[in-house]
């Protein structure tokens, strides 16, 4: 690399620093996202080989409806993991939001439109509680705190509905889970919109930059004027809010809800984020990677479902994929496949 | 090949992508010698140690151990060959006992059952420590020891591995004068027992006190080796810096203006009380005292890292209450933390990102960051403080300590501000970079910034300050004009009458 050096009036070498990044094809292709694209293609090929019904447009399109509901939580989860925290209460938050919404509508006679709003508010509140507890008890890890709220939120859901199902929603409510806009599932359109919004926030805004800074060095961030606590709370609220969105789509798709819905969703979501290249050590991750990872895990589950592999067996696949995702960068692979 | 050298390095070159960290350097170490290695930050000393200890294999050059050509492929390899390094930042296990720290990696185990032989290890640890003239209890937790004691444990560890060549990387940087003296004695004892020592330091007193030979590196190159008594102090500085430093402190031309900050009876229970002082435009206010006198705590309260319980702060005549750093930054106050690696910088971020971090708001519109503005700000400030690097995208972790400090200083200058608080700004910085930093500080004062400089170094306080505030046990004991200040007067005010506090 060349740069000019000259002496200033005091005899110091005055350096000129480069402020443009050189674009290299090697740098461009040496990204974890390309590895994910390869895995996605592999999943497609495997599925197509196993089932003749998999690889056609209507199947691929409608398949997204089966897994995209939980995928909304992946983006705030990625932010939380970049902050070097974790939230394992999101599955319970989905259940509680869903149960509160159903109870409001069925037992308390609240109009469904308002119940939908309440569903989102309950989700955001759950996230707010997580966030406040985490900044209040700094010596406790986020795993322990959200383990507590995970049990708590699920418990409240059981108290409200007592292991009953609650359904009979108005017809329009089914649009969330089953509706199409211009021949495309509504959930897919919204998912892509949300992905773009989160991607732009995380990678192009000051808020996103501060999230990465906190994940890398919380102390230095604080000394640099970053409002660490406030950002943490906002991100946890976003996670709760997105859990509320998931509750809407899930409840709509199933037509009814029970306190045990969205069981172990947090694991799917964390697996998707980790596979997408979000480091649990903090400070690293991209939204585009998590989007591809959502489709990898989603289509894998959907494809295996098509050939009647039972749901319990799917757990094995998700578990194996998660280990694969965390272990792969540690294995000495040919350089091109290493996570950056 | 001469047998008289236990360690000889010839023509060592080490390149990292884009940087030549060592360029054809030589080094010879005799048996039973203390050999000082000196040079500015970034001269290549740290890389040099890593080459000797097998962390970084060199790209070119040869390494001879007792006349035999060897190549170390790993730190363990070097350890087996009797080489031990004690690093600048002590790396240890604070939650484990002294014994466990000493025997980490080469524990004594029973031949048959592989049971750990605690009794034997404790006994040997005690013996080694006693031999070093130290009374540290081997069962004590490492984290409860002082930095000086931890260093002694590290030395004990080196002895327990049977090291014949011991490399010490700035061991006195964090020690008080008395602790340093203890370390000198231990080092001499090691030498008398036949060990050969490479002693790396910025402090000339270390070198004059201990070493018989001195080797100087500059800009990754070998400059020369001399007997300590064969080279004058001035010649040595010229060798290290490459130019003559006629005076360390700049001639003061800053002018004291109107009152900008007034602190009235500030207090925080358990930390400090009755803190009252004023700061004027263009003034450098030195804040000194022993370590633990509460200087950092007062300044961190002014910056909003911690809060104060009592008292008032007036900024330009208006009463303000500072609750967090962002608020104080908006009021025009910036703080340079003492620990640049932990508090100052995001080490595995680029220079540019680090400089931009406190200025994200100014670099954005409605929350959207402008990468163009970010790059131009980073370039301008990094060049202003003369950071030695190729591009603003270089990682801060790849820079030397002095250059990292320059990046920290650049971070202060991202906005219009009035008050800069510097907490030990020249800690761990070498002679050349020190005078460069003094010049930057003085320039800032001339430009009208008001500066509070915390420092434990007497010459720095006397040479830079317009007024000096001395603290002791959380209280201000004296505020002196520079012309009336003497070393003795400051020391007297700083020392405790109760004599409980260690001299720092």
Characterise this structure.
The complex is a heterodimer of chains A (340) and B (504). By secondary structure, chain A is mainly alpha-helical. Chain A has 15 helices and four strands. Chain A has helices at 25-29, 32-50, 57-71, 74-82, 90-106, 112-136, 142-161, 175-178, 186-204, 206-216, 218-223, 228-254, 265-275, 287-306, 311-327, and strands at 5-7, 13-15, 180-181, 184-185. Chain A has a two-stranded antiparallel ribbon with strand order 1-2. The longest helix of chain A has 27 residues, at 228-254. Chain A is globular. With 504 residues, chain B is an alpha/beta fold. Chain B contains 17 helices and 22 strands. Chain B has helices at 45-52, 75-80, 98-103, 118-131, 147-160, 177-192, 204-210, 233-241, 295-303, 325-330, 340-344, 351-356, 371-384, 401-412, 431-446, 458-464, 487-494, and strands at 5-16, 19-30, 34-38, 60-65, 68-70, 83-86, 165-169, 196-200, 213-218, 221-227, 259-268, 272-280, 284-289, 310-315, 318-320, 333-336, 364-365, 368-369, 419-423, 450-454, 467-472, 475-481. In chain B, strands 6-7-8-3-9-10 form a six-stranded mixed β-sheet, with helices on both faces. In chain B, strands 16-19-20-13-21-22 form a six-stranded mixed β-sheet, sandwiched between helices. In chain B, strand 17 (364-365) and strand 18 form a beta hairpin. The A-B interface holds A 1, 3, 11-21, 204-207, 209-210, 213, 216-217, 219-227, 283 and B 18, 243, 305, 324-326, 329, 335, 337, 342-349, 351-353, 356-358, 360-361, 363-364, 367-369, 375-376, 378-379, 382-383, 386-393, 411, 436.
């Amino acid at each position: 690399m060349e740069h000019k050096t000259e002496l200033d009036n005091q005899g110091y070498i005055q350096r000129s620093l480069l402020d443009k990044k050189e674009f290299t094809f090697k740098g461009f292709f040496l990204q974890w996202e390309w590895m994910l694209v390869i895995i996605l293609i592999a999943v497609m090929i495997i599925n197509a080989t196993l089932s003749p019904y998999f690889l056609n447009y209507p199947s691929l399109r409608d398949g997204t409806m089966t897994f995209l509901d939980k995928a909304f939580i992946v983006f705030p989860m990625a932010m939380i993991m970049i902050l070097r925290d974790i939230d394992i209460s999101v599955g319970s938050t989905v259940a509680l939001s869903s149960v509160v919404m159903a109870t409001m509508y069925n037992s308390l006679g609240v109009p469904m439109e308002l119940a939908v709003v309440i569903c989102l508010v309950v989700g955001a509140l759950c996230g707010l509680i997580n966030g406040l507890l985490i900044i209040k008890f700094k010596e406790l890890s986020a795993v322990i705190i959200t383990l507590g709220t995970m049990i708590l939120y699920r418990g409240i859901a059981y108290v409200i509905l007592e292991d009953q199902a609650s359904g009979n929603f108005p017809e329009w409510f089914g649009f969330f889970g089953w509706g199409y806009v211009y021949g495309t599932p509504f959930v897919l359109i919204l998912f892509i919109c949300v992905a773009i919004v989160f991607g732009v926030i995380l990678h192009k805004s000051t808020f996103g930059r501060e999230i990465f800074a906190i994940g890398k060095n919380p102390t230095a961030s604080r000394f640099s004027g970053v409002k660490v606590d406030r950002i943490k709370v906002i991100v946890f609220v976003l996670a709760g809010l997105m859990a509320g969105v998931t509750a809407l789509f899930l409840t709509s798709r199933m037509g009814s809800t029970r306190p045990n819905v969205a069981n172990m969703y947090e694991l799917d979501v964390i697996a998707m984020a980790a596979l997408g290249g979000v480091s649990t050590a903090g400070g690293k991750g991209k939204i585009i990677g998590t989007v591809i990872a959502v489709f990898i895990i989603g289509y894998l589950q959907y494809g295996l479902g098509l050939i009647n592999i039972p749901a319990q067996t799917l757990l094995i696949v998700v578990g194996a994929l998660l280990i694969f995702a965390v272990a792969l960068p540690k294995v000495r692979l040919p350089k091109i496949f290493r996570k950056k | 090949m001469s047998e008289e050298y236990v360690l000889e390095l010839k023509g060592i070159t080490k390149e990292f992508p884009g940087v030549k960290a060592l360029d054809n350097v030589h080094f010879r170490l005799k048996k039973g010698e203390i050999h000082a290695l000196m040079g500015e930050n970034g001269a290549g000393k740290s890389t040099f140690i890593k080459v000797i200890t097998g962390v970084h294999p060199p790209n070119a050059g040869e390494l001879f151990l007792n006349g035999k050509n060897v190549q170390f492929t790993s730190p363990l390899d070097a350890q087996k060959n009797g080489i031990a390094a004690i690093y600048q930042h002590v790396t240890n296990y604070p939650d484990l006992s002294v014994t466990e720290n000493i025997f980490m990696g080469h524990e004594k185990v029973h031949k048959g059952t592989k049971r750990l032989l605690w009794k034997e290890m404790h006994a040997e640890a005690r013996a080694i420590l006693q031999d070093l003239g130290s009374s540290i209890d081997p069962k004590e937790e490492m984290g409860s020891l002082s930095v000086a004691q931890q260093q002694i444990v590290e030395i004990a560890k080196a002895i327990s591995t049977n090291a014949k060549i011991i490399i010490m990387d700035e061991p006195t940087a964090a020690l008080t004068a008395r602790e340093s003296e203890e370390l000198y004695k231990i080092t001499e004892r090691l030498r008398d027992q036949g060990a050969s020592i490479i002693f790396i330091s910025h402090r000339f007193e270390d070198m004059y006190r201990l070493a018989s030979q001195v080797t100087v590196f500059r800009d990754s190159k070998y400059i020369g080796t001399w007997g300590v008594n064969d080279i004058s102090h001035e010649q040595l500085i010229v060798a290290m810096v490459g130019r003559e430093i006629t005076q360390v402190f700049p001639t003061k031309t800053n002018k004291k203006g109107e009152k900008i900050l007034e602190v009235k009876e500030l207090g925080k229970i358990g930390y400090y009380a009755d803190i009252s002082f004023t700061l004027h435009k263009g003034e450098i206010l030195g804040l000194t005292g022993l370590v633990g006198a509460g200087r950092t705590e007062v300044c961190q309260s002014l910056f909003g890292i911690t809060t104060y319980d009592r008292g008032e702060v007036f900024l330009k005549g208006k009463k303000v209450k500072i609750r967090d750093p962002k608020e104080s930054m908006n009021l025009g106050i910036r703080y340079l933390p003492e620990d640049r690696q932990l508090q100052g910088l995001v080490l595995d971020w680029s220079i540019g990102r680090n400089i931009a971090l406190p200025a994200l708001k100014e670099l954005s519109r409605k929350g959207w960051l402008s990468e163009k503005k970010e790059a131009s700000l980073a370039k301008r400030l990094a060049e202003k403080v003369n950071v030695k690097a190729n591009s603003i995208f270089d990682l801060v972790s790849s820079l030397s300590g002095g250059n990292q400090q320059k990046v920290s200083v650049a971070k202060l200058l991202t906005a219009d501000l009035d008050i800069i608080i510097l907490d030990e700004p020249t800690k761990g910085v070498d002679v050349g970079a020190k005078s460069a930093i003094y010049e930057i500080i003085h320039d800032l004062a001339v430009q009208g910034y008001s500066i509070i400089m915390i420092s434990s170094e007497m010459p720095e306080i006397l040479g830079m300050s317009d007024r000096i505030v001395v603290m002791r046990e959380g209280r201000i004991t004296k505020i002196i004009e520079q012309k009336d200040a003497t070393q003795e007067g400051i020391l007297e005010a700083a020392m405790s009458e109760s004599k409980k506090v260690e001299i720092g």
